[in-house]
């Protein structure tokens, strides 16, 4: 159903930036509708997050049966996940399989970074320029650039002097890294660090873990996926996928609908113990009000501190590993295997860099305000310029040459996390303002892709050439987003990447939508039914 001429080989109906979960499915949907599409991907392979995050221990903390595409019934019946939580190599194999299965590769340019995207008012279209010197024109520009794709290395003085090897978890070398016999320092104890640390500890001569903020790490309770378990999931996929789509977080973990105050002490303890045994992110749903009621939240936090004390032999180390002063879950809950146990090893040292911050990297290691550490390898598990980082690195210019950086100077503003006023025909997939990082990303990616694909099909049939979020709709959504977040405990813990606090100078705004996947989908579908209320649709 192409609405463009094919005369110019660099003219397309749509350009998609990124070939991760969102970009691959977006490409598939648009090809199926007959569009001319080009996907531009900076990485040397498809897979997005799972292409870049190859650090030892990297695995998803949403169960594989949920964290997978639902759009291809045969695929979801055929594919056999080997573990409850798939590790990075298996996820990457899966995404490569999808690319081959749907013959997507001929439409993807790898090793091609988009440097700018400019809207042409007269043509109602975008010109997308790459670091390889190409200029692609398309009516629709679809940003599938990911929420956690720009590695954040802290500006610590002296890194250029370091004579050892340094790495960031989010940009891990394909050939891997050996830690055998090495003195290793890991900076950062978020989701990446807590997965990596137990594995590095097994290999390194000595591991120093530099912790600034303790975070809660649940035992993943990972295990091999049995055929019987997989068969049950597959037979129940219609109900389970439907449930995920209307749930809070886009997956099938059970939610306790009872409030903490309405349960007896014995019931609360039984609930917490069963969530600990279930592992992973189950604890986030222990009580209906765990993220809105301070008492329910602190009861959960104290239960987990008790678990840390049970596991870690040295009481001082256990206390240092116990999060204090920020509500449970307001920094992303981590899920790992053997994390707390690792600190019982004689060859692992926990260093508190809150009381004695890292001052500089030296030629041979790292110096805090109180001590010096000799290191052969430094691993930065220091996170990402999240949600806006990948977009802010592209020079995006909308109507009248206005830049996205200007439009978002005080933090991202979107309508539904999909459209931006002043930037017609540009759509963000799982962008800021949508549930994205507060959900099973694959579920949210599918919902965005399908919603945008339906909108573009509608535009084609109705001969609409320009679609733009109105300023009013964007303002109302931005207010709604802040209102929803303001009703939760997240508003009390601003020191997280959810707020942009981990990147110096970044505006501090709570970026994802906390209203839940089901509620978000209901609103987005309702808007579509109302002829895309809040978007201005202009005929060609
Ligand atoms: P992160 O959650 O942002 O954690 C970064 C860590 O580095 C924090 O402990 C932070 O301490 C520390 N840090 C940063 N700069 C530092 C400095 N200058 N000195 C000392 N410490 C410093 O990053 P992440 O672990 O890569 O995870 C990011 C997100 O990716 C997760 O929240 C999750 O959504 C996703 N993820 C998911 C999985 C999974 O599915 N299992 C795995 C990995 C990542 P402060 O807290 O004090 O800032």
UniProtKB/TrEMBL annotation:
Transmembrane segments: none
Gene3D superfamilies referenced in this protein's UniProt entry, alphabetically: FAD/NAD(P)-binding domain
Keywords: FAD, Flavoprotein, Monooxygenase, NADP, Oxidoreductase
Xref: Pfam families: FMO-like
Domain of life: Bacteria
Essential cofactor(s): FAD
Family matches, as InterPro entries: FAD-binding_Monooxygenases (IPR050775), FAD/NAD-bd_sf (IPR036188), Flavin_mOase-like (IPR020946)
Family indicated by similarity: Belongs to the FAD-binding monooxygenase family.
Protein name: NAD(P)/FAD-dependent oxidoreductase
Species for this entry: Pseudonocardia xishanensis
């Amino acid at each position: 159903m192409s609405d463009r001429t094919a005369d110019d080989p660099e003219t397309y109906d749509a350009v998609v930036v990124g070939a991760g979960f969102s970009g691959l499915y977006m490409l598939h949907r648009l090809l199926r509708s007959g569009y001319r599409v080009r996907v531009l991907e900076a990485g040397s392979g498809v897979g997005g997050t799972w292409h870049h995050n190859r650090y030892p221990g990297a695995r998803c903390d949403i169960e594989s049966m949920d964290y997978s595409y639902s759009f291809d019934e045969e695929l979801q019946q055929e594919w056999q996940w080997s573990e409850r939580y798939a590790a990075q190599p298996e996820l990457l194999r899966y995404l490569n399989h999808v690319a081959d299965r749907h013959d997507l590769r001929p439409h993807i340019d790898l090793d091609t970074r988009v440097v700018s995207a400019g809207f042409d008012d007269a043509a109602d279209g975008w010109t997308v320029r790459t670091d390889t010197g190409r200029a692609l024109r398309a009516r629709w520009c679809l940003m599938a650039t990911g929420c956690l794709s720009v590695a954040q290395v802290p500006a610590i003085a002296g890194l250029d002097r370091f004579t050892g090897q340094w790495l960031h978890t989010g940009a891990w070398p394909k050939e891997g890294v050996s830690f055998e016999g090495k003195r290793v320092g890991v900076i950062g104890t978020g989701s990446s660090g807590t997965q990596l640390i137990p594995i590095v500890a097994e290999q390194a001569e000595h591991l120093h873990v530099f912790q600034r903020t303790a975070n809660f790490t649940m035992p993943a309770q990972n295990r091999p996926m049995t055929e019987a378990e997989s068969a049950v999931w597959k037979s129940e996929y219609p109900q389970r996928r439907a449930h995920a789509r209307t749930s809070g977080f886009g997956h099938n973990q059970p939610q306790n609908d009872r409030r903490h105050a309405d349960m007896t002490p014995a019931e609360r303890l039984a609930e917490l113990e069963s969530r600990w045994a279930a592992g992973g992110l189950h604890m986030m749903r222990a009580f209906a009000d765990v993220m809105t009621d301070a008492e329910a939240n602190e009861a959960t936090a104290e239960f987990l501190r008790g678990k840390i004390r049970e596991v870690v032999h040295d009481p001082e180390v256990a206390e240092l590993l116990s999060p204090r002063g920020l509500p449970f879950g307001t920094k992303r809950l981590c899920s790992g295997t053997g994390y707390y146990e690792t600190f019982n090893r004689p060859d692992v040292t926990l260093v508190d860099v809150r009381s004695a911050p890292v001052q500089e990297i030296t030629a041979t290691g790292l110096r805090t305000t109180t001590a010096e550490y000799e290191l052969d390898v430094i691993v930065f598990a220091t996170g990402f310029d999240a949600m806006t980082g990948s977009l802010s690195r592209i020079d995006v210019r909308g109507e009248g040459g206005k830049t996205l950086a200007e439009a978002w100077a005080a933090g991202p503003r979107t309508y539904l996390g999909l459209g931006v006023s002043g930037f017609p025909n540009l759509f963000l997939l799982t962008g800021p303002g949508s549930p994205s990082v507060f959900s099973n990303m694959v579920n949210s990616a599918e919902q965005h892709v399908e919603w945008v694909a339906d909108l573009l099909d509608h535009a084609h049939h109705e001969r609409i050439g320009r679609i733009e979020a109105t300023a009013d709709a964007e303002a109302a959504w931005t207010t709604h987003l802040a209102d929803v977040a303001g009703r939760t405990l997240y508003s009390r813990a601003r020191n997280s990447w959810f707020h942009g606090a981990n990147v110096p100078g970044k505006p501090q705004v709570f970026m994802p939508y906390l209203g839940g996947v089901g509620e978000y989908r209901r609103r987005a579908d309702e808007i579509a039914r109302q002829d895309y209320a809040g978007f201005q649709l202009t005929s060609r």
